[in-house]
Fold this sequence. Notes:
The chain is α/β, with parallel strands linked by helices. The chain is built from ten helices and nine strands. The site of glutamine (GLN) has 9 residues, from loops.
Amino acid sequence: MSGLPATLGEALARARGRIAQGDARILLREASGAGLAQLVAFPERALPPEAAARFLAWLARREAGEPVAHLLGEREFYGRRFRVSAATLIPRPDTELLVTLACERLAALAEPAVLDLGTGSGAIAISIALECPGARVSAVDFSAEALAVARANASALGARVTCLHGSWFAPVGAARYACIVSNPPYIAAADPHLAQGDLRFEPLTALASGVDGLDDIRHIVAGAAAHLAPRGWLLLEHGHDQAAAVRRLLDAQGYAGVASWRDLAGIERVTGGHLA
Ligand code: GLN
């Protein structure tokens, strides 16, 4: 087969065996403007040459390994579309748990101050700001490029989020928060997954954190109490085998209500506790 695919079905056939079927459908949906259901139900529907060319270009880049989110420049998270770039982690569905847990704890509070450490695209901070309209959300990132993406997302989605440039607690001064959330880097530096799949295209500083992956989590747990309001919550995303270690870190700092919660795959993914 050469030339441009003339129909939706031909386009999907062109992708078969080269990239995952789910990825092919998403790319064709975005290239053609057709709905996902139409791609399956109406394979004979004509594909305009411009859309076909766009799809083929994405197909080649996806086949070479680039993440779908980078090809499209966006990823859906908590029901909204977020701009992403090579400077940010690509938001994961697992991380929606962190937003839900934070919002549950903020619901009873009037104008709770919330801090998101290492905000990246801003997905967590912005989702919390929009789901808990009373919340006053601040978002920190040490990457100015990432923070620019977070600012653009906040403004595109109409979220009120204060973006602060610096490393972890450095830019927040003496402020105290009702809830501190973070999806920090937590992969062990020697983990072979870092050299595989989509992770190769994401910033290493958003992924890897020391020999056991816990360097940044240890830093955050050590510093958080000084920035939490009375009964304030610290909620941290972590790796699939780190829940017990993170609970121990929180216990050692005297946190109350220490617990872990499972993600969509049933894996303990978020651990948290609150000041007594
Ligand atoms: N959850 C991501 C992964 O394992 C890692 C993100 C992170 O380190 N915060 O692919």
